[in-house]
Design goal:
164 residues, mainly alpha, 0% strand, elongated
Length: 164
């Protein structure tokens, strides 16, 4: 948009706010770009719309869809993401900071990926209805873990270690 976000015109700011409120911005990189612009403005009227946009992104499958777009061989587990969202909500974290970053960090810090990869790998539905061997479970769980962890890392690179 421009090199110095502090020079954002009132019209462009209004357009960004309208886009957030209409949920027409639905990728993590675009939401982060707007979040950085608004952070540079330090305008109080941008905080609630930005927070609402992140809540929508996380709760209405945009985050899951983005993760699954990066994990085409072994689609990311919705159960894993739902568990992370529950844990964040139970910890009271949703009232502060970026919900998406909190959920992704919860997946990482609680080491949820290997657990859900193993649960998925053990399902007979993954094996044409038959019970898989322990070797097959481990092989599939490892493949899922590798792919899911790579996708998680890709999304987390949009923030620094403090969620900024």
């Amino acid at each position: 948009m421009m090199s110095d976000p502090r020079n954002l015109s009132a019209t462009n700011k209004a357009l960004l706010l309208r886009s957030l409120n209409a949920h027409s911005i639905n990728t993590l990189p675009e939401l982060r770009r707007i979040e950085r612009i608004f952070a540079a403005l330090n305008a109080p009227d941008t905080k609630q719309p930005m927070k609402a946009a992140w809540v929508y992104y996380v709760n209405y499958h945009n985050l899951l869809n983005e993760l699954r777009g990066m994990t085409r061989q072994y689609p990311f587990s919705s159960e894993c993401l739902d568990d992370a969202k529950r844990r964040v909500a139970q910890g009271g974290g949703t009232s502060q900071g970026n919900l998406c970053w909190q959920v992704l960090m919860k997946v990482k810090e609680a080491n949820l990926i290997p657990h859900y990869a193993r649960l998925l790998a053990a399902k007979p539905a993954m094996w044409g209805g038959r019970a898989p061997s322990s070797t097959e479970i481990e092989r599939l769980a490892t493949a899922c873990t590798t792919e899911w962890t790579r996708a998680l890392g890709t999304l987390l690179r949009h923030w620094d270690a403090n969620g900024q």
